[in-house]
What does this fold into?
Amino acid sequence: MQLGFLLEQVVNGLVLGGYYLLIALGLSLIFSVGGVVNLAHGAFYAFGAYASVEITKYLGFGPAVVLSPIAVAMLGILFERFLLRRFYTADPILSLLVTFGLAMIAEQLIRIVWGAAPLSATIPPSLKGSVIVGDFLFSRYRLLLLAVVAVVLAGVWLLLHKTSFGRVIRAGIQRPDMVAALGIRLQPYMTAIVMLGVGMAAMGGAFFAPITIVHPAMGAEIITIAFVVVVIGGLGSFWGVVIAALLVGVVRGVTIHFAPAAGEASIYILMFLVLLVRPRGLLGERIEKFE
Amino acid sequence: MTSTSRRRLLKAGAALAGVSALGFPAIVRGQTDKIKIGHLTPLTGFLGALGGYAQLGIRMAEDEINKGGGVMGRQLDITSEDSVNPATAATKAQRMLEQDGVAVLMGEINSASALTIMQVAARNKRFFMQIGARSDALRGKSCNRYTFHVDIPSAVMVNAVGKALVRDNMMKDKRFYTLTADYIFGHDLARSAKMFLDANGGKLIADELVATDVTDFSPYLLKIRQAKPDIVCSNLAGNQVTNLIKQYAEFGLPYPIVGFNLNTADAWAAGEGNLSGTWPTVWYHTLDVPVSKAFVANFIKKHNKPPENHAWIEYVSLKMMAQAMNETKSTDTDKLIAYFEKETQFDALKGRKAYFRNWDHQLMQEAYPFTVRAKGKAKDQWDFLELGQAVPGPNESLEVLALTKEQNPCSM
It folds into this structure.
């Protein structure tokens, strides 16, 4: 029975990892292609949550989780065009400072517009409750979330590996100079990557708004975990991030099963151990420009 | 494109971790001179939403007092800042006393930060009105002569809800599964809860510590289902309660859920239909007392939303402080302490007047258990709590729910 309980935690951890993935994958892509650690990534997650709460009021939950990521992706265009673009070739400390500053501005902006008090959001009644599959308990809502993550993940994988767009991106990660020599400007691709990345973060926010608290600091809360996932997974690796996200979810769940007080610390210990053994992360490739 | 190294990324990570530990401080300053009051409250982190209401409350009292001619003919000037964390809270409190020249310190919601500010107050021999932190230890073994406590302590919350549970046959021989916030306040609450269960025949089958930055409760919910308790009980704080309630409703577990601590802002944020069970509160805006209703109406006129219990408590706290300064014609620490220790009666906008008990400096006041209104019964999104009868009852001493001298290790 004990083993069954543990297995249930593992499966639940995988589901949670899928959700971390929505935020971490964009962070990883933006860094891999642009060389910018986007500390404002959490802000887009928060915007996604707030936008979905607002849209839900008028159009309902379904349209909200579709429209909110699209709206935030548009915001991503402005972010890339007017801010991020200036920092691809600059000292990375500058882009860190700028995106960190932006994260603070975004948090205060949310406080000014919506107030410090959290917003109320709730799951549509039809998605409440849980289903029991075999011996495992699943929340209906998280099963839906898992399906959405799987579709998004498949979409991103196909985009990166089966399209000419993806070929340029992957080449750009490894050898931007060669891509430039072939007469391809990476900038429009970068805009698309930022749109995709922050859009996914916003989708995470939109889907998590009904089950966690929607408050101004929610972006700062999620960015730390997303960052840990990226570091564990390794840069430039699609599957590295996927595996890391799932691993973080599982390790946290299993730790809470045995030692609840250590649940949040466990993911940092995991990061520490992984970096000790594999300084590039689990599947991190050797990327010349980052060495 | 650039020559970043992985090391830089790791450094960035370290910087990020450091910064997130500090939080994003939000600073709101008052103007200069007059009677200065230093106010600290968490504006960020898991209690930030409550601190937002706290500021609105104390500002409203400040406005009213100043428009009415101030205190001893002098205007009040409140400097209010984000207390961030216990270490920062202490640093800021010291700076307010030393450099800003504040007469007294007020505020706080976080019990751990309140404790460090209390130490600063004692070291500097200055007055601290500790308004919103509820840990028993603050008015118990850590109590000091310079600090007065306004909000109800954990023991009172446990007793208020516990008595309602006993009445509803939800105590004797019931198996309780508790979740406890992993810091001083949660530990205190869990201790009080355990004492109450032991004394009234409840069985504690598990108590899990939950870090204050936990946002996902799903692993805990699975453990609860595996343990099959009769009642799930929350000893959590701030944001944690909202997240638990939302996810408890998400998973739809069949066990009734109750809790020994909930602030109305956190209940409002849970969303309609998610909250259930019996919880304690120190005040609610639907309270049927004329002075309270007038306060609520003024607050709504000003802020377009009803006041939360932290707005109310800050409002009455500053009013009490102004009354004390007016009556003693002084901002002197010893005179203020003597005034409050006389067990002077104050209007706390409740059915009965309140007073600070002289030996532990705890405000004795009414509290209320509440349940949740049936679906469709709420007038608006703020109105879904059904207040129970005030406790202690009208014929009882206000001290019956509080710890007695034998139970409370406070000595000044």
Summary: The first strand of chain A starts at residue 130 and ends at 133. The mean pLDDT of chain A is 91. The radius of gyration of chain A is 19 Å. Chain A has one domain: 8-290.
